[in-house]
Amino acid sequence: MESVGCCSSSTSPEKRKQRQNQRDNKPYRGIRMRKWGKWVAEIREPNKRSRIWLGSYSSPVAAARAYDTAVFCLRGPSARLNFPEYITEEDDLRDGGGADMSSASIRKKATEVGARVDALETAHHHGPAESNSARVSVKPDLNEYPDPENSDEE
């Protein structure tokens, strides 16, 4: 009897911790993180067992935006979105929202949005740091600088 009480009480906190860890690792709906750090998005087709693969991305935001695009195409304005404010900006989705679309066209739209956001996120995080480090590491040739007398002409 002690083992039954022990196991039942110890498994529920462990399961709660597992669920909490899963929620912590998944900041947005419809995405998950691979072991090696990439974020992937996929969605189930309504009334089917199959899934639509939405791509692999560097940032969770890009994966979540790809998911939002797909879920909006499948379920229309009633869909639960990660970023509802961005869907209204995408004109090509307004026409297709809720319409009967093929999984290939949904995948195409979602991966386009995800890739665009991923490129912006990557440029935002890596762009300024690389340009600053390049400026610091380059040693100027002092012989090529203009004379202070001629610098007023510019």
TrEMBL record:
The keyword Methyltransferase does not apply. Residues 27-84 form the AP2/ERF domain. Residues 1-12 have a biased composition (Polar residues). Residues 118-128 have a biased composition (Basic and acidic residues). It is found in: Nucleus. GO terms for biological process: defense response; ethylene-activated signaling pathway. It comes from the Eukaryota. It holds the Pfam family AP2. GO terms for molecular function: DNA binding; DNA-binding transcription factor activity. Keywords: DNA-binding, Ethylene signaling pathway, Nucleus, Plant defense, Transcription, Transcription regulation. One of its GO terms (cellular component) is nucleus. Its main location: nucleus. Residues 1-29, 117-154 are annotated as: Disordered. Residues 144-154 have a biased composition (Acidic residues). Probably acts as a transcriptional activator. Binds to the GCC-box pathogenesis-related promoter element. May be involved in the regulation of gene expression by stress factors and by components of stress signal transduction pathways. Belongs to the AP2/ERF transcription factor family. ERF subfamily. This is Ethylene-responsive transcription factor RAP2-10 like.
